[in-house]
Amino acid sequence: MVKSLTSRQLDVVSLTPIVNLTAEAMHHDFVKVLECVEDVGFEIVAISIDNSTPNRKFVQKILCNGVVQPWVHQPLDNTRKLFIVIDMVHNFKNIYNNILNKKHFACPEFQGKDVKASFDHVEMIWKLERGKPTRMSHKLSDKVLPTPISSGTDKCEIGRWLLPREHH
After folding, report:
1. Is there a domain that residue 137 lies in?
2. Which one in 45, 46, 60, 158 has a CA-CA gap of 20 to 30 Å to 124?
């Protein structure tokens, strides 16, 4: 996908079916897309990637020669820079999905301390603050929890809302 920095233009350049995505296959397609897009008059100044394994390997091993950097020389024109932008929103989504699926998340050591997260902490905050008029976690609701926690609603009341209209 190509997105312009100066206009609202957004175009899909290539959709390629791939069974096993590798850094080498990505590099091959990357160069073909660069050539195609630059041949029609665009100047590629940045690429955006998420933190998937093939993307990480492609950037680290192939584009950056083993050491990740904020930019590399543009493969088609060594006098220009090609900036590498990490899609942080996608990374946060991956972390969130990971903690939803595994319920526990161990992060790399930070300032000499282990950093761990558990969805139990989120559920504990939800239970402590639910029903209060002001909350620190004002957007936290049972809809964002991995399994809805019972809010104390009568099961018969829930059943009433699921019946067809003629039964009310």
Report:
1. yes
2. 158
